[in-house]
Amino acid sequence: MTEQPETDEQREQREDREETERDHAAGNHQYCGVTCEVKMPSDMLRNFILAKGYPGTAGALDELLRRAALTPPDVAAVQPEPEAHPTTTAWIGEAEECDGQWMYLGASPDRSVIEERIARQQKRFPSWADGTPVRRRIVRKTTTYTVATEETPR
Known about the structure:
Layout: H1 8-26, H2 43-52, H3 60-69, E1 83-96, E2 102-108, H4 111-124, E3 136-146
Antiparallel strand pairs: 1-2, 1-3
């Protein structure tokens, strides 16, 4: 029986698999699947895979159940990173420009200040010149500071 020559698509898929395997062997697990022992997908991705049951995810549930049955590492041995400064939260008011970009209206650690600013803006400028209503939103900005260690990437 004569073997069919590899199509461009098949060649590209094979090369992608080989590149992923090389990356895995080199310690880069960005594109590893759910069977990678080093990097398991996040809870959100795992739940998405399980809930949707997309093609190509066959065996994902069995793999996840197998890993869940493994003995977890000693949780007490894992120390959280020390905080350098307390976490800060600020509230930012924004308005959507005609081109879809969000324009800064102001910021405050007190959400009610931003709510009042947005209400004043809405009262004074309810729509653009063409009659399109101005969309506004409140964004929460959270800043966390941790102490850099020797292992922290630069």
